[in-house]
Design brief:
Blueprint lengths: L12 H20 L4 E2 H10 L25 H4 L2 H14 L5 E5 L5 H13 L5 E5 L3 H10 L5 E4 L6 E8 L8 E6 L2 E10 L2 E8 L2 H14 L7 E4 L1 H13 E13 L1 H4 L10 E4 L2 E3 L10 E3 L2 E2 H10 L3 E7 H7 L2 H7 L3 H11 L8 E8 L18
Parallel strand pairs: 2-3, 2-5, 3-4, 5-10, 10-14
Antiparallel strand pairs: 1-7, 6-7, 6-9, 7-8, 10-16, 11-12, 11-13, 15-16
Length: 382
Amino acid sequence: MPPLHPMLPEPTADQCAHSERLCALVAQQIDAAGGWIPFDRYMQLVLYAPGLGYYVAGATKLGDASTGGDFVTAPEISPLFAQALATQVAQVFEQTPAHIVEFGAGSGRLARDLLHALQKRGTPCERYAIVEVSAELQQRQRVVLANRPVEWLTAPPTGFRGVMLANEVLDVMPVRLFIKRDRDVLERGVGHGRSGIRYVDRMAAQDLSVAVSEIEAEAGELPDGYASEVGFEARAWMRSTADWLAQGMLLVIDYGFPRREYYLAQRLMGTLMCHYRQHAHADPFWLPGLNDLTAHVDFSAMAEAAQEAGLQVLGYTSQAHFLLNCGLLDRLQEDHTPMRSSAAHRLISEAEMGELFKVLAVGRNIAAMPVGFAHGDRSARL
């Protein structure tokens, strides 16, 4: 059994056996690749390997400690999140068909609450589609969304007109890792030996080296020993959205920073983080397959990727500003209770989710200024 981290809940014997099977697969992949794989390949395996990865193996993920979940997202906290979001969606519906595509719909609560809020506003959604890679989460979604007009897609649509939503999607896309050593750029990959799976560094490939040079050109030279990540897969996903979106808006909601803030010299070890039973830790090799593994989003890179593909940046701000612009406090006053007030605090407080989480809107053929960015737009910081 892998050694326990202090203060983390003890896994069951079955959970440990599951993780050991995934470790064996990772070791096999490392050997087949000649003793080393890049970290994004490791992250892909531990999150998405068929039957074994965190998001495809059936373990409970979303929810608080009482349900055995590992983390809680904004839609799980309160319907207030969807009720405020409905204001922005309804504005887009004035210019597009009333269609929504949600990527990675979690438990399905955002879809359920958003459909209800739009119906209540008198701007009902005519078609709601979900693109979900996790069979376990899709099953949960089908229960939550039973008897509602929702369909599940195996791939993103093309020629889409309406609103696309990606809430906490980009943070779980695999990333490449780098570290500066004596002014050289090394790629931090994964190998294994007697001590198990571990980091192994080697000279960075050209694409990663160029990416780090571009970061330093904007954020300044990074100090010796500085380690962080680059989200090539998230950039590619953002570029792909231009192929899917004919008219409308893509809303990306996630935790992250603009490039100058992401790669601060003081942030010496990057943003890679693991989540296990409501506990956060920084060891990606502890019980792989049982931990969520995430990295913050470089929103400057996401905006650039969208623009390169032909989309327009429509707005960028904090989650707090976005929700307040969309009338969260008005929704709270309609049904004010201590529980809803506490939930609103979690959603908009700078000490909670309000500042760490950001909202980026990109789109095509949208004329009106998006209401969610009417005040506090930070697009100039990207």
